[in-house]
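Re: weekly structure request thread

Next one in the queue (156 aa):
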Amino acid sequence: MVTTLVAIRHGKAANGGYSEDPPLSEEGRTVQKWMAKQLKAHGWEPAQIFSSPLRRARQTAQIIADLFDIPFEIEPALGDAFDPETLLHLMPPVEEDATIFLVGHAPSLGNFVNQLAGNDALPTGMAKSSAAVVSFSEHIAFGKGRLIHYLAPDKD
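Done, posted below.
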């Protein structure tokens, strides 16, 4: 049995992302749709999707939710008040053999993956629209995960 976490950074924001809570740009939507299809092609089916409350993350989560035909939930711990402990407790037990998707922001999401899988898992962080896939085969704790795949628009 394995629990899998797919950490997804939101797509590119409109206006360079300089407004307080910008939406996704058209390019961001297009790239995110492609990346969501890549996740599905790799066989990662979410049991749950959690999103930051910020608009660009919610819009990214909606693209993913539409493709997988599953609703997403807002999780404040993925937003400005990033809380890795709360996120760790969202993870289903290994016995459930489940996959969850977390949609959030840099640098906090990349740092979280590094906490889970080791500081060198993502040494340069996460690109926009990228996904880091971390698996847990025993118990879920910081340092116990293994980065099994990193998908980025410029890599796949």
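Strands lie at 3-9, 48-51, 72-74, 99-104, 131-136, 146-151. The domain at 3-151 is CATH 3.40.50.1240 (Rossmann fold).
Next request, please.
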